[in-house]
Amino acid sequence: MSNKKIWTLAKDLYNRFKEDELSRLSAELAYYFLLSLFPFLIFLITLLAYLPLSEADVLATITQYAPKESMVLIETTLNQILSNQNGGLLSFGIIATLWSASNGINAIVRALNRAYDVEEDRSFLVARGMAVVLTIAMVFVILIALLLPVFGKQIGLFISAIYGLSDEFLSIWNAIRWLLSGLILFIVFSALYFIAPNKRLQIKYVLPGSLFATVGWIIVSLAFSFYVSNFSNYSGTYGSLGGIIILMIWFYISGMIIVLGGEINGLLHKRKENSIY
């Protein structure tokens, strides 16, 4: 793609940003992300009894990207909830996660429908069922992402022992294992952009937005975490609410990246239909 076409795409994306009210949609997503966060974590952690994982493994995965102050809030709240654990916690986690997260998926569906300029004509049951299925799929994908580092380390040690490989191999192996988390994130975004809009798409037409969302979310999350840790003072401004404010801003940024990825796919698809490219 030439520089002129990239510049034209950027201008069109800016216009769509204003027309489709992406700022408002991102705020809506942030609200639903916050509502579904703790039920989702409760559900994951209650499943740990059946998996070779610990609560620390789950939190360590989030720590890679989340701002430090938000992690303090997440860990404190989660420990308070789990201290009152009972037999019905897993059932509550399932119901609350599916309902809250499916609301978030529905918000993403509305945003992606706007990106393609299509109306939602699927029935409530079909739309909600799709949101629930996507939520369940995300649970399994996240579990796989958590399990890979655990089993990957054992596999690396096994290969190293059999072939007598050096420590350099283990260093390279560890780097490859962590790159898999980016690949899994790319797969999640691709599935979301492919299934959620009320429009028949070919998988190749959702890959540009998926790549943008994956790379953009990782870079922006790490940059925001660095900024919060080194330059900002939200606690001084908001007091005890500082952790919640930081968490909401992070969710807002994440929602923005998701809807921008969808808008990129929508623009490229329209240009393809109009034979511009």
From TrEMBL:
Broad class of the protein's primary localization: membrane
Residues spanning the membrane: 29-51, 89-109, 130-152, 172-194, 206-228, 240-262
Topology with respect to the bilayer: Multi-pass membrane protein
Domain of life: Bacteria
Location(s) in or outside the cell: Cell membrane
Record's protein name: YihY/virulence factor BrkB family protein
InterPro entries for the chain: Virul_fac_BrkB
Swiss-Prot/TrEMBL keywords: Cell membrane, Membrane, Transmembrane, Transmembrane helix
Coiled-coil stretches noted in the UniProt entry, renumbered to this chain: none
Key word Transmembrane present: yes
Pfam families per UniProt: Virul_fac_BrkB (PF03631)
